[in-house]
């Protein structure tokens, strides 16, 4: 399988309003966790982040916010950012722009029930990284779309935890927006990779911040 660990260079050019890597002057990394919150994995992530005074951004699925609002409140209480990943993890290539916007609004309504973010920015990441120009156009007035610069493939069960970690350490640079998942699919790799990734980059003097 061909894996694009780094963002293919043509994409930022196609979608200039979208965030990929962030401009930074110092050793900052932006960790992001997609698809939660869930009780099996998200509390583990919070505990690991706390050990390194690391902050992160959680792109939540609306349905998971409905099921586990107490975990989402814990994420906020620990100084992390909650962000939008649609209500039911829908694919842009299979959903009309109008129906897609409804999914995003519905997730945003659930986020607002949980509580207020420190930041007023409405950050949104499309499930599966799927976007079209039409979807970008309809979302952009209200939402800041966030993609990534480093994809760990933690969700890929055919990738060993050791390889997943080695690749992550190789592709993460200052200003990187890193995709990880607080999901059951990614759990095995995440439990191995996250503590080591935090330890490695903390040791090099990096700070982990919210977007
Ligand atoms: Zn997702």
UniProtKB/TrEMBL annotation:
* Source organism: Rufibacter immobilis
State the name under which the record lists this protein.
Polysaccharide deacetylase family protein
Q: Domain named NodB homology: which ranges?
A: 27-209
Q: Which processes are annotated in GO (biological process)?
A: carbohydrate metabolic process
Q: What is the lineage of its organism?
A: Bacteria, Pseudomonadati, Bacteroidota, Cytophagia, Cytophagales
Q: A Pfam family for this UniProt protein?
A: Polysacc_deac_1
Q: Which InterPro entries match?
A: Glyco_hydro/deAcase_b/a-brl, NODB_dom, Polysacc_deacetylase_ArnD
Give GO MF terms, alphabetically: hydrolase activity, acting on carbon-nitrogen (but not peptide) bonds; metal ion binding
PROSITE patterns xref list: NODB
Question: Which UniProt key words apply to this protein?
Answer: Hydrolase, Metal-binding
Give the UniProt entry's GO cellular component terms. Answer: membrane
From which domain of life does this come?
Answer: Bacteria
